[in-house]
């Protein structure tokens, strides 16, 4: 079970709010790389996909999305698909985590153990690398913070 980015990060990614429903969304292109000769390479609403691209969906499906209000039209007539936050699994946590401080060097909470780790950081590591019910092994088990973090997730 991979953790997702927090509310602040999701709000930045899904920065638009649908006026009718109040749902957060982001705008994504309705075209994809590569030329296709089938339905997705045909005109839609009188326009062709950009050069070297094709529609991600057939024109009929694009019409359905537009009828549901899931296509955003820019001022210059450029279509974008609305991808809603509440229908998304979210964005996986990236590999550089700047949102946790080192307990010992930043004086967040010091127990006196010389290599103490931030328990919230260890919770993220355990959550990102295991599933509920898994056995967590901390081979070095200094002060036991990793095990406490794992226990907190149960």
Could you please describe the fold and organization of this structure?
- Helices cover 26% and strands 15% of the residues.
- By secondary structure, it is of the alpha+beta class.
- It folds into 2 domains: 7-87, no CATH class; 103-153, no CATH class.
- It has a 4-stranded antiparallel sheet. A two-stranded antiparallel ribbon has the order 3-4.
- α4 crosses α5 (145-153).
- The longest helix has 11 residues, at 119-129.
- The relative contact order is 0.15.
Topology at a glance:
Blueprint (H helix, E strand, L loop, with lengths): L6 H7 L2 E2 L6 E6 L1 E3 L19 E3 L3 H9 L3 E3 L5 E6 L18 H4 L12 H11 L15 H9 L1
Antiparallel strand pairs: 1-2, 2-6, 3-4, 5-6
Helix pairs in contact: 4-5
